[in-house]
Design a protein that fits this description.
Layout (H helix, E strand, L loop, with lengths): L1 H14 L13 H24 L10 H33 L5 H13 L2 E6 L2 E6 H7 L5 H5 L4 H7 L11
Antiparallel strand pairs: 1-2
């Protein structure tokens, strides 16, 4: 019986987490909370790297692996800092009313999509121009009718098979 307790105690002792820190704090959980945040970041980053970046394994635990990891972290930090600086400059320029690349892109996107509607039907959806939706809904669109646009033409454009009642 005492042998089981010793084995159980040793197994429980192996599961204990010991965190050493040089950060002076009156509350011992300050270091634990800081480690928890860092652990979350590292584990999430590593999981993302393996799942979405298709990395087969993490860097090896060697001097070269540590060096690569440090370079990668510094590169990521530099990219994020550069992006944040660029974003703050463009946001400030937009507030002043200046034309920036993102405002030109948004304007172009608005122009390309301003006459479109999204129609949902059950688990399906379609993106149509306003006049196409009106034609499919049975509403006559005079301008398009003059151009010869019909419901069948809209259906054909989207590859929808239909039976033409006029051909029977």
């Amino acid at each position: 019986m005492s042998r089981r307790r010793k084995l159980g105690a040793a197994a429980d002792a192996e599961k204990e987490v010991v965190i050493l820190t040089t950060n002076p704090a009156d509350d011992p959980f300050v270091a634990f909370d800081a480690y928890d945040d860092r652990s979350l970041i590292e584990n999430t980053c590593n999981r993302e790297a393996k799942e979405h970046w298709f990395l087969e394994h993490h860097p090896k635990r060697s001097e070269a692996g540590v060096r690569i990891h440090a370079y990668f972290v510094l590169l990521c930090m530099a990219l994020v800092s550069g992006f944040r600086a660029y974003k703050s400059q463009t946001d400030e320029a937009e507030r002043r009313g200046q034309d920036t690349a993102i405002t030109r892109y948004r304007r172009q996107l608005t122009v390309q999509n301003r006459d479109k509607v999204v129609v949902f039907l059950g688990g399906h959806f379609g993106i149509f121009r306003h006049y196409e939706f009106a034609l499919l809904a049975g509403i006559a669109v005079a301008e398009r009718a003059l151009m010869g646009e019909t419901v069948q033409a809209v259906l054909r454009r989207y590859g929808v098979p239909f039976s033409n009642p006029d051909s029977s």
